[in-house]
User: Fold this.
Amino acid sequence: MARAKANTARTDPDESGAEPLPEDIRAMSFEQAMQELEAIVRELEQGEASLDAAIEHYSRGAQLKRHCETKLKEAKARVEKITVGSDGTVSADPADLD
Amino acid sequence: MTEPTAPTPTPTPAPATPGNVPELSVSELSRALKRTVEDAFSYVRVRGEISGFKRAASGHLYMTMKDTDAVLDAVCWRGTAGRLSVKPEDGLEVIATGRLTTYPGRSKYQIVIDSLELAGEGALLKLLEDRRKALAAEGLFDEARKRPLPYLPDVIGVVTSPTGAVIRDILHRLRDRFPRHVLVWPVVVQGEAAAGQVADAIAGFNALKPGGSPGGSAGGAVPRPDVLIVARGGGSLEDLWAFNEEVVVRAAAASAIPLISAVGHETDTTLIDFAADRRAPTPSAAAEMAVPVRSDLLGDLMDRERRLVGAVHRGVTDRARALEGLARGLPKPAQILDAATQRLDDGAERLGEAMPRALRHRARELEQTAARLRTPTQVIRHGERQLADAAQRLAQGARAAIDRRGERFADRRLGARLDRAAGAAIGEGADRLERAGAMLESLSYARVLERGYAVVRRADDGTLVADGAALTAGEGIEIEFARDTRRHALVSGDGRGSSTKSKPKAAAKRPPGVAAKQGDLF
Assistant:
């Protein structure tokens, strides 16, 4: 089935083999993660944090970066067409509209 | 348009004579009229302004169409009314399409409307403006209702025709910028059904459950889009009319999912544009609004990563440098120990030396003090030396005095003085000789003996005893007293102290004073 194929083609963010990301980061949108990453970078650049805090910030920054990267890697075009059944249920089927 | 055929009074016979004119009932005539009108005007388009619009409880619509000189009753049966693309209202200039019929019961004729369209651009624009004002008054277009578009939507819902250039443009542009999961809700975008379908599609997307697995429609649940695009290509005002319909505008305003409208070309404005959260001038532009450019984001991300790594690296090296600087100022433990050990060694060494040195020092002091301490023997010996010295000088002095007197005497015996004075001087010379003899006698040691001193000699050999210590106990001595008195004695004791019976010639008791006085005699 084309539908099944589409499903297996999906990239799973956690298949990278790296340490799993914290739940709160995984729940983040790309933009939220980017914003926090920027904030962390700026704070680190000011160099006022203690060494421990800096290391902690860095590892969180690295996780945020990994999350953003995953989100960017997920970029896969997929087009589906909505079909409304006679009972009003909505389903989507792969479509080639090009 | 079908030209109305000239009414031909077919049912009625030709008027021959008044007597021949058949007599018709009203109903017959009305039926005849009805047939004639319906045959002749079975399909007409008529233009006029709506007035007296009324929706009956039955669902039929009644109104009058009019222009400056005439009026025409119009009716729209319920079955048709729901399909009208233009919602009739008073004052609307419309073109009605339908057939004419009569209503015999009231001697009226009317048009039965099949469809209704707006007449003329100006009328449409006026309607549009009026509707816009009405909806704006409801607050549907308020800026406060606008929601920001998601930065990077996972799923994009597109409401448009599945065929044609619009969906292709959108998909291409999405793929160029950031390929995404796109759900297309196919609708017709023109005609009477369009508005309803578009409104249903918007509502349908909103009805999807949030959190439906993104991209995972295989499991059944269709993912809810994060952003909607309602799109249609360019066209005439009438072509785009569905997007001005109230039902569409209301659906767009009610959409909980942020919505981008992209209807027609840039210059075309439809009412959905006012209700949408963002208005895109073209479908491609809508795709651009919906997603950022992936390569830009990758660039941004890389830049941030570089800064992140750089900043933390700098933080660590700065601290390492600071630590190094501080460590330089910190003396090495070994050095501290070395110095302390050295001090300890030094102290221990000096401690070891201190006691002997102190003892030596004390010993030296004692020695020096002891050295200054004279034994009585030494004191006596010293006195004796002084006495002997004095005695010697006494003897010398005496001899010298004798010599000088002798010389003087000799001088006086010289020359004429001697001759002249010889006689007289003999007596004087004799006196002087006598005196000199007495003086000489007085200077002899015999006189010293007269002052209480004694001369001690060893009995056996007659040698003078100067040092009492040289005598041994039991030794015999001869003691000479004044006037040549000699007595013999035996030494007892060991010579120390004053236990000896002998009285040395230079006894320590008085010698310095005596010697000085004796010296003074000369």
In short: The mean pLDDT of chain B is 83. The two ends of chain B are 196 Å apart (CA to CA).
